[in-house]
Amino acid sequence: MTSSEEARKTYAEFEEKVSRTVFLDNLSTQSALVEMENEKQARALISEMTNYPFMMSGMPRPVRAKPAKIEMFADRPPPPDRKIQVRWVDPSDPDFVVAKKLKQLCKKHNAEHLALIKHQLEEEEKLAKHQEETLKTNYKKFEMIESIVQDGTTSRLARHYGVRLDYD
Amino acid sequence: MSHLGNRDNPDFPFHWGEKGELLEDKYVQFYKSFTYYDEEYFLYDSVYLYETCQDTPYIGKILEIWEQQSHERKVKILWFFRPNEIVNYLGDQVPMEREIFLASGNGLGLYNVNPPEAIAGKCRVICTSKDQRNQQPSTQELENAEFIFFRTFDVANFTISDVMPDKICGVNVKYLLNQKKDQKAFLTKSKTSTSVAEDRPQKKPRLTDKSTDPSINLLTSKTVTGSRELRIECGEESDVALKKLELGKRAKYDELQLRKDPNPVRKGTVTDHTSDASRSQFLDRSKWFQHSWKEQLEAANQGGRVVLLNNLDPSITSLEIEDIMYRVFQQQCRVKVIQQATFQNHNYGQAYVIFKTKDKAEQVVKAINGGCLMLSQGRPLISSIGMLKIPAKASALVGHLPTYRGRFQVQRVEMICAVSTSHGSQPNTMEYNLALEWLLLQDKYLLTQKLLHESQLKERRYFRNHLKSK
């Protein structure tokens, strides 16, 4: 096998691996790449986690699943037969000005992207805080109801008002 | 125990050999040998025991053979341990090739009582202990041996020792080591067997993995499969499975392999992916023994040797960047692309480059930012010293709400069990609403991000089209 054939084979294997990998984000502090047995399983996992709320012990977890992409693998092999061109652009070249613009654009775009992500994180935090409060209140409410039922207050009240209590 | 039903069948290939002690009060007749499938087994022989769903057979030594009043035949087997069975207790001791460990001490896993039908065949085990009581084996015997042992494994305190105790399981250890009588038998056997060109497998189907004995002729082993299967069937019903499970027998073989093979990982940077012949002269030996990338990056960042490259093609690989760095700056460096995860804009690729010195890193940054290094697809490179600044998450577990314990939780668990959903959810709970809020928020931002990236891509294309050379 020549080296280019080998590279092609390695790349094909890698692409196959990517196709059956799922990217999990918002996994507490980290994100993870999960390799499944085949592409079908990976797709099923993604669709299930996207279409249904993901819960653990009855609590929602903000975990997101996306199909993995080649760019998510730091140790990816280079695509076969690709040669990246490199050249220095002379300052007198008209391209130099355009390139400068492109550089600025890249910086701007990255800044925009980071700002959006930051905003999202803030919103997420707000939501989490809000939900925690709601949950606490609800929990208190349920506890109160439960204690009233348990110490017999409800049945006494029911008797007092002549109402029939039906727990179902 | 249906195999016992075969007892009266004259065709059942089992015959008692020389009689031993008779315990009249217990109605137990001991024997010194028996024949099973034309193979005669003596006391203290090493044998294979086969259990289904186990690809490697167990190895043990016959300590006692007896028949009970109910005509049940029994053998008492003292176990040998394969290194992978006790890998958790090996510590820094490296097992030798073909080495197994004799069980010793008192406790679970020392021996088991099995029906003789569980025996799958004889096993050539040689003791190489330097113990005085041990008859030292000849080189030929060593070559012929399938396994060797010179150490014991104490089943009570899980220790390995190369000192043979006086007694194991109530049996004088001299019977368990190589015996003179045994040796003669072995010698004559091996002499004949070499001349008769491997007739051994025919007599007893070998259940070892083939690697131990590559000389097994495939054809001959095929001819015996019939009888082998029969024997395995008998073995299935035996209680071999009782054997020493408590000792963490099922330790992974890989683990052992790992220990055996502590070769340093050579990173892919010196592989032939880069066809540049000139580079091979500059093989950097510092790359062979690596700390983890994270450690390296942190150390290099403190020394100001890390350069962040931006505006790369998102699909570019570390190797390609290394190649570019070498072609343009004649610099040997370590490169790793930054994985596209939460904080990365997927229109732009980014990478960390670690240079050997701070000066070199600064030189490169100055050259790239002052001039214009254009890569394919109209991507002028941007660089900066230091690492990416990503917004720190305020709290480690945003959105991971506490689950309340106590009665409330117990009830909830029951509710969940009742409809049997583990990670799914029921729309009639308040947690479901919480989850929906998360989905909404996430979808909103996913969409925003998509729109942003699309508009960014348009902008980039617009400017790129102004380039003369694309």
UniProtKB/TrEMBL annotation, chain A:
<dbReference type="InterPro" id="IPR035979">
    <property type="entry name" value="RBD_domain_sf"/>
</dbReference>
<dbReference type="GO" id="GO:0003676">
    <property type="term" value="F:nucleic acid binding"/>
</dbReference>
<dbReference type="InterPro" id="IPR053316">
    <property type="entry name" value="Epigenetic_reg_gene_expr"/>
</dbReference>
<protein>
    <submittedName>
        <fullName>Uncharacterized protein</fullName>
    </submittedName>
</protein>
Automatic annotation (TrEMBL), chain B:
<dbReference type="GO" id="GO:0003682">
    <property type="term" value="F:chromatin binding"/>
</dbReference>
<dbReference type="InterPro" id="IPR012677">
    <property type="entry name" value="Nucleotide-bd_a/b_plait_sf"/>
</dbReference>
<feature type="domain" description="BAH">
    <location>
        <begin position="39"/>
        <end position="164"/>
    </location>
</feature>
<feature type="region of interest" description="Disordered">
    <location>
        <begin position="188"/>
        <end position="216"/>
    </location>
</feature>
<dbReference type="Pfam" id="PF01426">
    <property type="entry name" value="BAH"/>
</dbReference>
<protein>
    <recommendedName>
        <fullName>BAH domain-containing protein</fullName>
    </recommendedName>
</protein>
<dbReference type="InterPro" id="IPR000504">
    <property type="entry name" value="RRM_dom"/>
</dbReference>
<dbReference type="InterPro" id="IPR035979">
    <property type="entry name" value="RBD_domain_sf"/>
</dbReference>
<dbReference type="InterPro" id="IPR001025">
    <property type="entry name" value="BAH_dom"/>
</dbReference>
<dbReference type="GO" id="GO:0003723">
    <property type="term" value="F:RNA binding"/>
</dbReference>
<feature type="domain" description="RRM">
    <location>
        <begin position="305"/>
        <end position="381"/>
    </location>
</feature>
<keyword id="KW-0694">RNA-binding</keyword>
<dbReference type="InterPro" id="IPR043151">
    <property type="entry name" value="BAH_sf"/>
</dbReference>
<dbReference type="Pfam" id="PF00076">
    <property type="entry name" value="RRM_1"/>
</dbReference>
<feature type="compositionally biased region" description="Basic and acidic residues">
    <location>
        <begin position="197"/>
        <end position="212"/>
    </location>
</feature>
